[in-house]
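Good morning,

Attaching, inline, the C-alpha cells for the sequence recovery test we're adding to the shared suite. The designed sequence is right after.
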C-alpha cells in the first residue's frame, strides 16, 4: 500500500523541517544508542537489521548533487527541506529558505480573529517552501509475518532486501512520471531527469490499544523533497499531480516486484480473488505467501482490528479512528521485537523453511478475459488511461509476472484489443503554456463497444428526430394548459409553455428537457402527461433509484420504477414497450451511457417516445459516460431556468449563480474544460460571496461537526423538515451517531439498545438500535414491501426464539404507505442503517426547510455544492467547514467535474499516424467530409418537423463551411457553434469510425454478449 502525505510546516513549525526529520531518523539514533532504545518516544524509534537498511538518499537529483547512496542525516536533510543544496548551500528552487509567516486567522468577514471553542486565537502559517511528500510504502501483512518468522538474520535481511528493492522500483517509476513547471505563471510543464528522496525503513505497527503489542509491519517512509531536476537541466520545485494520479498503479509495481523477490528466495505465491462480506467478487486479485494460513496473519491484524472496531463503535472513518487510537509508547529495540514475534508465533507450527515447501497456485488461477477486464475498466468511466491499465492488470496478474512483463502486458493489451484511441484530457486555452503536462498530451483509450454505445445513443436521437406520431394537436395542448391553469390558479410562464410545446409538438422520438434545480419540472410533467393521455398515450416514469421512482409516481401520477428494475423486466420479457408509450426519464443527468443505450434500444424497436428530463450540472452518473449529455449534443433541449423552489429571492439568486451564463446573463450548458483556472476561481469567488452568511467556520473538523449538531438541536423546526447531509460515508455515520446521542440525552430514544450486524453494498458493520430510532432500508425486499430508500421508525425490539431480534417498525413516507407497520428478523433482513443524516448524492431530488451541510473540501465541487444548497426550500441553508477549508472554498465551488464522454473528448484522427505525429480530429476535417451528409439528412425531413434549432444548425454548418480559415478557438465559440461542432464530430465518428463488432441498432447491449463477443 502506498500513502502519500503532503509535508508542510504549520504555525508551530517555522524553524524548518526538523520535526519531520526527527520523526524519520529516531530509529537510527536508537540503533546507535542501543540500550537507550526504550527512552525514544517517537513512533519510529526502532533499530535497523543491517547497514544496508540505513536511511539513504536516492534519485536522479541525488546523483546530480553527489548524494546518491549517501546516508541521510539530519545535517543533510534539513537544508533539503528548505530547498538548498546541503553541500554548497546553493538555492535549488524559487523560494528556498522561505519558512512562511505566522498570521492570525480571521473569520469569514475578515474583521474579527477566529477563535477555537476554548477561546484561543487560531493562527496559521502563510506561504513558505513546502517540505515535500511522505510516500509511505507498506508491505502486505503476509510479507511482514514472514519477516517476523525468519530466525536466521540472513533470511531477515534477504526478505527486507526484497522489500527495499521493490520500494526503489516503485519510487523510480514515480520519478519517471514526475513533472515540474517553468515560467512565472507555471503554465509550461516539462518532465524531470531526477528527484531526490531519502528512504527510512521501519518494522512494527503502532501498539495495539488493548494489548500494547506491536505487530510486524514492514514499511518505508520515502521523504520526497519538493525539488526536481528538469529535463532542461535546471533545478526547481516539484509538480506533484502525476504522483497522485499514478499512486495506485505504482502500488501494483511495488507488489509485483516484491513477490518476485520473495519467489527468488524460494517462497511460493498464492493468488486469491477478493470477496466482499456478501461473498461477491470485488474484482481485485491479491497475492499471498503460499502456506501462510490466515490465522497466522490474523494474529498480527490487531492494529487494523482496533481501528475497525473503533470506527464501528464511534461511527467515524478509518482515518479518524487511526488518529484517535494512535499512541506514543516506549518501544523495544529491533532484536527484542524479533524475539517477541518469533515467541508468539511458536504455537502455529510454521517457519520460513516450511513456507518454502508450499507450492503456491500462481499459475492455476484462470485469468479474466480481456473483455471482462474492459468491463472493469469501464465500470465508472468512459475513458481510461495507461495508469488505469497498469492498476487493473497489476491486480489481475498479481504475483505471477515480473515488472517488465507487467509493462509488456499493458502494451499488449492496448495493441491486441482493438482499443479506440481518445484525445488527451482537455485543457482550457488560457491555461496552456508552450509545453503541456503529460495528462494533456497522452492518448487515452476506450473499448470499441463503449464508443459504439455512445454513437448509437446519439444515432437513436438523430434518427428518430423526424418522428411525429407522438405529437399532440395544438388545440388539445391549449385545452390542457387552460384546464391546468384554471385548476392551479396560476398561469404557465412563457418558458414553461415553450418547454411544453417542445415536448408535445416540436420534438421527435427522443426529447430533452433541461431544468435547473428547483425550476418546477413537476409542473411541466403534469401538463405533458395530461396532453399525452388525452391522445391515448400511456406514460411510464423511470428513475435512477427506487425512492426517486416512488416520489415521481406520487408527484406526477405516472407509473414509475427504477432504471435497474425497468431494464431487468425488459431483458426478461416481463415488460414490453408499445408505440403508444411515452417513457419519462427523471433526473436523467444521473443516468450513464450504457443504461441510456439499453433503454433507447427497446424504445426505438417499439416506437415509444423517450423524454429525458434533468440537469447535467447536478450530480453525475456513477457509471461510465452521460446519456443526457450525449442526447443534448445530438438534438438539443428545452430549458427551464426560472428557479422556484427557494422561498426567498436571494436564495434563488444564489442557486442561479452556480450555473454558467453567457455575456447576456442567459444560462448556457457547461462543457468539459470550458473554464480556465482563473475563471474557475472567479466563479468560486462569486458563489462564496453569496454563501458567506451561511458559512459556519470552525477551527477543526470535530468543531464543525459539533457546531452542526448544536445548531440542529437548537432549531425548533420539526425533524422531518430538517436535512443533514455530508459528502462521505464516514461523516454521515459520525453525524448519525451524534444525533442519536442528542436524542438519547433528551429522552427521545429508548435508553436500552441492542447491537446487530447490518450490511450495505457488500460491507458489514455493527449497528446500535433503540426504540424510536429512524432507519432507512438500503435494499429492496418484496416480502416486506420496502425498497432502497424506504424510511421507518423503530417501534419495538425483542429477542427472537429463532435467533437475532424481531424488529417492528412503522413506515414513514412523504408519498404513500405512511404508518404501515411491519416486523422482520435481524438475521433475515440486514440491509438498513440510521437515517438522521445522509450523503449529498442521495439528497438529490429532495427539498427541506432547513439544510445542514457538513462540507468536505476534497469531495466538494460545483455539482455537489449546487445539489447541497438547492435542497433548501423556505428556511435556511448552513454550511459547516474548517477555516482552512473556507479559505479554499473558491477553488472548489466553481470546479467543473462533468462526466466525460468519448464523443465529447474526441478521437485521435488516425491511430497509426497519430502515434507518429499526434494528429487529432479537427473541426475543419469534419466539415470537409460531413457537411454535405448533414445537410442532406436535414433536407429530407418534413418542414414542419424541423425545429428552430435544426434550421439554425444548418445555417451554422453553411457558415462554418464558408469560413473554414477562421478556426476560432472552441472556448471562444458561441453556444450554437459549440453544438454544431459536437454534432459534426458525431456524424464523423458514426460514419468513418464505426466500432466493431456492430451491435443491432434495435437491440440492447447485453452484458454477457459484450463479455463473450468483444473478446478478440
Amino acid at each position: 500500500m502506498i500513502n502519500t502525505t503532503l509535508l508542510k510546516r504549520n504555525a508551530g513549525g517555522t524553524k524548518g523541517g526538523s520535526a519531520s526529520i526527527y520523526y524519520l531518523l529516531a530509529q537510527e539514533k536508537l540503533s546507535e544508542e542501543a540500550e537507550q532504545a526504550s527512552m525514544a518516544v517517537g513512533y519510529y524509534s526502532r533499530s535497523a537489521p543491517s547497514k544496508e537498511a540505513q536511511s539513504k538518499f536516492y534519485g536522479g537529483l541525488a546523483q546530480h548533487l553527489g548524494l546518491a547512496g549517501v546516508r541521510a542525516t539530519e545535517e543533510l536533510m534539513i537544508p533539503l527541506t528548505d530547498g538548498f543544496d546541503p553541500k554548497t548551500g546553493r538555492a535549488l528552487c524559487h523560494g528556498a529558505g522561505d519558512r512562511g509567516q505566522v498570521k492570525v486567522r480571521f473569520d469569514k468577514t475578515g474583521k474579527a480573529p477566529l477563535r477555537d471553542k476554548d477561546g484561543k486565537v487560531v493562527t496559521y502559517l502563510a506561504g513558505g517552501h513546502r517540505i515535500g511528500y511522505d510516500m509511505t510504502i507498506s508491505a502486505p501483512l503476509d510479507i511482514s509475518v514472514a519477516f517476523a518468522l525468519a530466525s536466521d538474520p540472513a533470511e531477515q535481511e534477504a526478505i527486507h532486501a526484497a522489500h527495499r528493492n521493490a520500494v526503489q522500483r516503485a519510487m523510480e517509476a514515480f520519478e519517471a512520471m514526475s513533472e515540474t513547471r517553468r515560467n512565472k505563471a507555471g503554465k509550461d510543464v516539462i518532465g524531470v531527469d531526477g528527484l531526490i528522496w531519502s528512504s527510512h525503513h521501519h518494522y512494527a505497527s503502532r501498539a495495539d490499544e488493548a494489548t500494547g503489542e506491536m505487530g510486524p509491519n514492514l514499511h518505508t517512509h520515502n521523504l520526497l523533497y519538493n525539488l526536481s531536476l528538469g529535463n532542461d537541466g535546471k533545478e526547481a520545485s516539484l509538480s506533484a499531480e502525476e504522483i497522485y494520479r499514478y499512486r495506485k498503479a505504482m502500488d501494483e509495481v511495488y507488489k509485483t516486484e516484491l513477490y518476485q523477490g520473495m519467489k527468488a528466495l524460494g517462497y511460493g505465491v498464492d493468488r486469491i480473488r477478493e470477496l466482499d462480506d456478501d461473498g461477491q467478487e470485488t474484482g481485485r486479485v491479491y497475492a499471498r505467501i503460499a502456506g501462510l494460513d490466515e490465522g497466522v496473519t490474523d494474529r498480527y491484524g490487531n492494529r487494523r482490528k482496533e481501528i475497525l472496531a473503533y470506527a464501528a463503535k464511534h461511527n467515524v472513518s478509518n482515518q479518524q479512528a487511526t488518529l484517535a487510537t494512535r499512541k506514543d509508547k516506549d518501544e523495544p529495540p529491533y532484536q527484542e521485537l524479533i524475539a517477541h514475534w518469533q515467541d508468539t508465533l511458536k504455537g502455529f507450527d510454521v517457519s520460513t523453511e516450511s513456507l518454502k515447501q508450499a507450492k503456491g497456485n500462481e499459475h492455476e488461477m484462470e485469468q479474466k478475459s480481456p473483455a471482462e477486464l474492459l468491463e472493469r475498466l469501464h465500470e465508472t468511466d468512459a475513458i481510461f488511461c495507461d495508469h488505469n491499465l497498469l492498476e487493473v492488470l497489476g491486480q489481475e496478474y498479481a504475483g505471477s509476472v515480473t515488472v517488465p512483463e507487467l509493462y509488456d502486458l499493458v502494451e499488449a493489451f492496448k495493441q491486441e484489443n482493438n482499443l479506440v484511441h481518445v484525445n488527451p484530457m482537455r485543457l482550457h486555452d488560457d491555461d496552456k503554456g508552450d509545453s503541456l503536462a503529460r495528462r494533456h498530451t497522452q492518448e487515452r483509450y476506450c473499448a470499441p463497444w463503449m464508443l459504439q454505445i455512445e454513437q448509437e445513443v446519439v444515432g437513436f436521437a438523430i434518427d428518430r428526430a423526424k418522428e411525429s406520431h407522438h405529437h399532440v394537436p395544438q388545440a388539445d395542448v391549449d385545452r390542457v394548459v387552460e384546464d391546468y391553469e384554471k385548476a392551479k390558479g396560476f398561469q404557465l410562464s412563457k418558458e414553461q409553455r415553450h418547454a411544453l410545446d417542445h415536448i408535445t409538438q416540436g420534438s421527435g422520438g427522443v426529447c430533452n428537457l433541461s431544468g435547473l434545480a428547483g425550476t418546477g419540472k413537476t409542473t411541466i410533467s403534469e401538463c405533458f402527461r395530461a396532453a399525452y393521455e388525452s391522445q391515448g398515450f400511456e406514460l411510464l416514469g423511470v428513475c435512477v433509484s427506487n425512492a426517486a421512482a416512488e416520489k415521481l409516481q406520487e408527484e406526477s401520477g405516472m407509473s414509475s420504477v427504477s432504471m435497474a428494475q425497468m431494464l431487468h423486466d425488459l431483458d426478461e420479457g416481463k415488460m414490453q414497450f408499445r408505440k403508444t408509450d411515452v417513457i419519462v426519464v427523471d433526473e436523467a443527468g444521473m443516468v450513464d451511457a450504457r443504461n441510456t443505450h439499453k433503454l433507447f434500444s427497446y424504445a426505438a424497436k417499439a416506437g415509444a417516445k423517450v423524454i429525458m428530463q434533468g440537469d447535467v450540472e447536478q450530480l453525475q452518473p456513477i457509471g461510465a459516460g452521460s446519456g443526457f449529455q450525449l442526447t443534448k449534443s445530438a438534438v438539443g433541449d428545452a430549458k427551464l431556468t426560472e428557479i422556484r423552489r427557494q422561498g426567498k429571492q436571494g436564495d434563488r439568486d444564489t442557486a442561479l449563480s452556480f450555473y454558467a451564463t453567457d455575456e447576456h446573463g442567459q444560462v448556457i450548458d457547461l462543457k468539459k474544460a470550458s473554464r480556465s483556472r482563473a475563471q474557475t476561481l472567479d466563479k468560486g469567488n462569486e458563489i462564496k460571496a453569496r454563501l458567506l452568511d451561511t458559512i459556519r467556520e470552525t477551527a477543526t473538523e470535530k468543531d464543525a461537526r459539533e457546531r452542526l449538531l448544536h445548531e440542529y438541536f437548537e432549531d425548533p423546526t420539526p425533524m422531518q423538515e430538517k436535512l443533514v447531509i455530508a459528502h462521505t460515508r464516514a461523516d454521515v455515520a459520525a453525524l448519525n451517531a451524534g444525533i442519536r446521542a442528542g436524542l438519547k440525552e433528551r429522552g427521545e430514544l429508548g435508553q436500552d439498545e441492542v447491537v446487530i450486524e447490518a450490511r450495505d453494498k457488500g460491507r458489514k458493520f455493527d449497528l446500535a438500535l433503540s426504540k424510536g430510532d429512524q432507519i432507512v432500508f438500503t435494499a429492496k425486499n418484496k416480502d416486506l414491501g420496502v425498497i432502497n430508500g424506504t424510511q421507518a421508525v423503530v417501534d419495538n425490539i425483542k429477542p427472537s426464539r429463532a435467533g437475532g431480534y424481531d424488529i417492528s417498525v412503522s413506515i414513514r413516507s412523504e408519498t404513500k404507505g405512511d404508518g404501515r407497520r411491519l416486523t422482520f428478523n435481524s438475521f433475515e433482513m440486514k440491509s438498513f442503517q440510521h437515517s438522521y443524516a445522509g450523503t449529498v448524492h442521495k439528497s438529490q431530488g429532495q427539498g427541506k426547510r432547513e439544510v445542514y451541510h457538513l462540507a468536505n473540501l476534497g469531495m466538494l465541487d460545483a455539482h455537489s455544492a449546487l445539489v447541497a444548497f438547492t435542497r433548501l426550500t423556505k428556511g435556511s441553508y448552513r454550511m459547516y467547514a474548517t477555516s482552512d477549508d473556507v479559505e479554499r472554498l473558491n477553488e472548489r465551488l466553481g470546479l467543473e467535474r462533468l462526466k466525460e464522454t468519448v464523443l465529447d473528448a474526441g478521437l485521435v484522427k488516425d491511430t497509426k499516424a497519430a502515434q507518429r505525429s499526434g494528429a487529432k480530429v479537427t473541426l475543419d476535417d469534419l466539415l470537409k467530409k460531413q457537411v454535405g451528409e448533414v445537410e442532406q439528412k436535414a433536407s429530407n425531413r418534413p418542414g414542419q418537423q424541423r425545429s428552430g434549432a435544426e434550421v439554425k444548425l444548418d445555417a451554422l454548418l453553411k457558415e462554418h463551411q464558408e469560413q473554414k480559415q477562421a478556426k476560432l478557438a472552441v472556448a471562444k465559440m458561441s453556444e450554437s457553434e459549440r453544438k454544431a461542432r459536437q454534432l459534426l464530430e458525431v456524424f464523423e465518428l458514426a460514419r468513418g469510425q464505426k466500432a466493431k463488432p456492430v451491435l443491432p441498432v434495435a437491440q440492447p447491449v447485453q452484458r454477457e454478449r459484450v463479455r463473450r463477443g468483444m473478446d478478440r
